[in-house]
Task: inverse folding
């Protein structure tokens, strides 16, 4: 457990001291959301309808941004080979890295989402569900993203390839995340959507690290 | 399975099997086309447009089946390091992408006269589109490495992760009530489709399957031959 926490702390420290991934992700999130009122027009009626969708879609894209760096720095400087030799199973290390990734991207995105939704005139009833959905959904993005990052390690144009591989797998999170907000706004229970997100999260926590660790072993072999 | 791990033996056996596969494919597809276009009755609601089904449904079934082949071959390659399983997975994937594209395009052509639209964001259509992108991602990934064996292994992991999409496709029409009709062939209590239509469909599906097997054998053989030629050139 201490090794796990040490790894989380190391990754957090690296992320914070190496030039603020979180700040870039949030800045991208803001900018991308700002593009929509400019693109579809500033009428509040239109924006209200699509606010939840815009926030979720841009959050997905923002989460993609920092994924490539999840293992790349460690792979390039050789630390990944040392990590692979640690007594802590590689699966748990992946979990630790995904957790650190979530703390530096998913969590800030979740915190900023209501503010951006406010700018887009989201219906008042939707806010709790937006935050709840993001809180459950963004860890899934980090976990699935860890698979993509591990699989593309050492590939040519890895970053572009990573988005091509990971975005299709993000679709269920998007569907249920937006579904929860929409359900709450039209006055039906958002519970099923949140429970499905929770189910996805509970499935991703044990399964995604296994797949990512398998890919990492191939990379350091 | 392990007897086939020897490429030389695979070449011998596949050379013997290939003409039979190709001949049976030609016969079945020709027969199925005649059955589908002339023998099968027009639908009482959809009229002649229902004949699109004889291409659409087998293509949809192949799209999923080929993904299963890719995933199983990937698992075999990862677990037993079977040398031909990697090649089978990599050579099957473009075929699967092709079947998925045929399924999407024929479905679109069928949807226009029946539903009045080329495309709807329905659960099954979307999940098949995702399957298409999974195929493309897999193909892009296996070619993205300087070392082809790395590409094969990374692709194998991705193929296994993508399996989660298959049950979503299969059950999407039962879980969400959408525009796409529910399962009418493989269901408990027997098919709900008329026997006069089921027969041509079955022959067509068998033809599609053998067509895939034939193409896969041809692709695997040419891949092995290309590797052999390269080895000979390097030795010379």
Result:
């Amino acid at each position: 457990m201490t090794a796990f926490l040490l790894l989380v702390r190391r990754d957090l420290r690296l992320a914070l001291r190496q030039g603020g991934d979180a700040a870039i992700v949030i800045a991208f999130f803001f900018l991308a959301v700002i593009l929509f009122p400019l693109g579809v027009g500033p009428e509040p009626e239109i924006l209200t309808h699509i606010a939840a969708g815009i926030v979720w879609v841009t959050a997905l894209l923002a989460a993609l941004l920092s994924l490539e760096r999840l293992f790349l720095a460690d792979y390039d400087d050789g630390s990944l080979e040392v990590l692979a030799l640690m007594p802590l199973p590689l699966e748990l290390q992946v979990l630790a890295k995904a957790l650190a990734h979530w703390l530096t991207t998913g969590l800030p995105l979740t915190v900023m989402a209501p503010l951006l939704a406010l700018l887009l005139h989201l219906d008042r009833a939707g806010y709790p569900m937006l935050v709840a959905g993001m809180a459950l959904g963004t860890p899934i993005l980090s976990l699935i993203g860890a698979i993509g990052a591990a699989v593309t390690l050492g590939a040519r144009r890895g970053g572009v390839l990573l988005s091509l591989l990971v975005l299709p797998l993000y679709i269920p999170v998007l569907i249920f995340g937006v579904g929860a907000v929409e359900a709450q706004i039209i006055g039906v229970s958002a519970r099923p959507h949140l429970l499905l997100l929770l189910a996805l999260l509970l499935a991703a926590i044990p399964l995604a690290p296994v797949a990512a660790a398998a890919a990492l072993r191939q990379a350091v072999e | 399975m392990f007897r086939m791990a020897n490429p030389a033996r695979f070449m011998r056996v596949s050379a013997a099997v290939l003409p039979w596969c190709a001949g049976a494919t030609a016969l079945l597809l020709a027969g199925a086309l005649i059955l589908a276009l002339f023998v099968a009755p027009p639908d009482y609601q959809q009229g002649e447009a229902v004949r699109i089904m004889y291409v659409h449904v087998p293509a949809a079934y192949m799209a999923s089946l080929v993904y299963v082949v890719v995933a199983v071959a990937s698992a075999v390659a990862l677990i037993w390091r079977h040398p031909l399983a990697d090649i089978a997975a990599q050579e099957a994937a473009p075929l699967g992408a092709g079947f998925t594209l045929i399924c999407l395009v024929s479905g679109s052509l069928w949807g226009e006269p029946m539903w009045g639209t080329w495309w709807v964001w329905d659960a099954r259509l979307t999940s098949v589109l995702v399957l298409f992108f999974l195929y493309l991602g897999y193909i892009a990934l296996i070619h993205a490495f300087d070392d082809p064996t790395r590409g094969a292994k990374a692709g194998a992991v991705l193929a296994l992760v993508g399996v989660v999409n298959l049950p979503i496709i299969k059950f999407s029409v039962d879980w969400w009530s959408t525009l796409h009709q529910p399962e009418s062939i493989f269901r408990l209590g027997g098919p709900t489709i008329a026997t006069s239509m089921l027969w041509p469909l079955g022959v067509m599906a068998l033809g599609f399957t053998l067509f895939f097997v034939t193409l896969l054998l041809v692709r695997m053989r040419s891949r092995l031959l290309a590797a052999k030629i390269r080895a000979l050139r390097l030795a010379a």
The mean pLDDT of chain A is 89. Chain A has nine helices and no strands.
